[in-house]
Amino acid sequence: MQLQLQQLLPVYFDESQRNGSEVWRKDLTFNKGEYIKIVAPSGSGKSSLMHFLYGLRNEYNGNITYNNNDLKKFTAEDFAVYRKDQVSIVFQDLRLFPEQTVYENIELKRQLNSFHPAEKIKEMAERLGIGSKLKNKSRICSYGEQQRVAIIRALMQPFDFLLLDEPFSHLDDKNSQNAMQLMLEEARLRNAAIIFADLERIDFFPYTRLFHL
Amino acid sequence: MAVSFKPIRTLLQTGTNTGSRWFSYIGLGIGVLLLLCSIQMFINIQQLLGGENQRKEGYDFISISKTITNETMGQLEKNLFNENDIKEISSKPFVQGVSPLVANRFRVQLSAGEIIPFSTDMFLETLDNTFIDTVPPNFTWKEGQDYIPIVFSSDFLEIYNVFAPGYGLPQLSEATASQVMVYITCYGANGLQQTFRGSIVALSDRVNSIIVPKTFLDWANMKFGNVHDVKASRLYIKTKDANNPDFLSYLQQKNYKVNKDKTKFGRVKQVLQGIFSGLGIFGMLVVILALMLFSFYLQLMIARSKDNLQLLLMLGYSPNWLSKNVSKQFIPVYILVVLTALVFTEGMQWAFHHFAMFDRPELSSLLHWSVLTTALFLIGLSLLTNYRMVKKLLYKLV
């Protein structure tokens, strides 16, 4: 299981922006079991990179391949399989269903391809400190709480790669560490890779490789 | 893996436009009802007016002639049927047989001899035997035979019985008429003349004429009239249904004259079928309109739920699975709408059969199978248009 980036550059970036980048216009291979840390200041294309890897957007030059299959050639159905079986993501902007409860939001992902039984939702929620919020509509939860919902949701499915796009932006250190711990455990369970993009280095993420975007 | 659609149903926002949804359901129901009722009534008319007129052997026999107008008056050729006319008519699918009615082309006089002092100029005609309803075995003639068997129109006998008393002639029963020996005198050119004996061997309800064997008339037309090939002024047509609208419009188009009374039913049928065809088309239009309204409703629903649907696709839900399941939501509604229309149609048919037609045996209180087939087809059509629409809209969101 490999994610490969070949000479990748967003079409809306000019060539000068690749200068100094360790990702753009480089050939990179990410393997299962690796912990990749991508550090990048605002506006350097962190979310773009995550969206490209997840197949949400394709405004880039170069190639991204998953197991030697070019993402640009994926059909809508291929992406559905890719997102439910192989790659999971925590979006920076969370993307929850505002009118559904916390539990329903997580269950919508779990039922699609369940890696865990339904009881695991409560267990994880309690571990991250949102056990009492399961019945609340997600839109009335705080950002911090919503961020934890998004994290738990991403852990419900099997995956080879877990993409994290500033997953702790609304969490304090203690909650962040807690959540990181959970994600590391879950990644280990699947022998999966984590690709973690953030503004700065975070000490409690034991990365195996570090890139500056 | 069985993914449940239940939690997703709540993500489709339908709440605020319930009105337009119900309007489209009702519209669809009315359209389907109109369409089904029209088809059933169309079939009722076929069964009521089509079946009844098929007589004894299952055929109608009617005679047609060319309409004589001021323009064609005196031009014998234009008022007679030629070979091509006959060929054309017999090639029509609604015509099962054509026989020309050939008349005498010489002077014929008929007298009743001593018993009834009655004598008149007459005409004779001949027709293919298979077109005559009553043909006794002795209805034949060979050259040299001085007896001619005659098939006589029962209408003519009736007319005779009406005027006979006024002329001091005896009225005749059908049995007596057959026993009266008449004398038929044929006159040719140059004083040529020959008298034959004749008697009525059968009375015909079908043919309004005096029919003699073809062999005789062919011979006599040659001998007395010097004509080989006599053209017919009337044609007898054998048809499964004299009221067939196609048949009637063909006659109308060719300007052929036909016994109006016999085809009156046909004209009524033509008009009624026209009305119900119109209603059926109207029903179909309403169905299309309702389906369009429904598709607008669907578009609105998907536009309103766009964010949710997009997020589902983002999470890894298959667009194909979503389309199938979103459109599946409407299966019960569609089936219910069409079934309701079907129940109303059945009620209409029962009431029509029972109250308007007094349980006539030609009709059935139950719906015709084609109505049921149409109903099934409509359910299929609605589901298909629905599925395609949802799929198209969802793939746009990917």
TrEMBL record, chain A:
Gene Ontology terms, MF aspect: ATP binding; ATP hydrolysis activity
Top-rank lineage group of the source organism: Bacteria
Keywords tagged on the record: ATP-binding, Nucleotide-binding, Translocase
Domain ABC transporter: 3-213
Protein name listed in UniProt: ABC transporter
Automatic annotation (TrEMBL), chain B:
Gene Ontology CC terms: plasma membrane
Transmembrane segments: 22-43, 275-298, 331-352, 367-387
Alphabetical keyword list: Membrane, Transmembrane, Transmembrane helix
Protein name listed in UniProt: ABC transporter permease
Species for this entry: Niastella populi
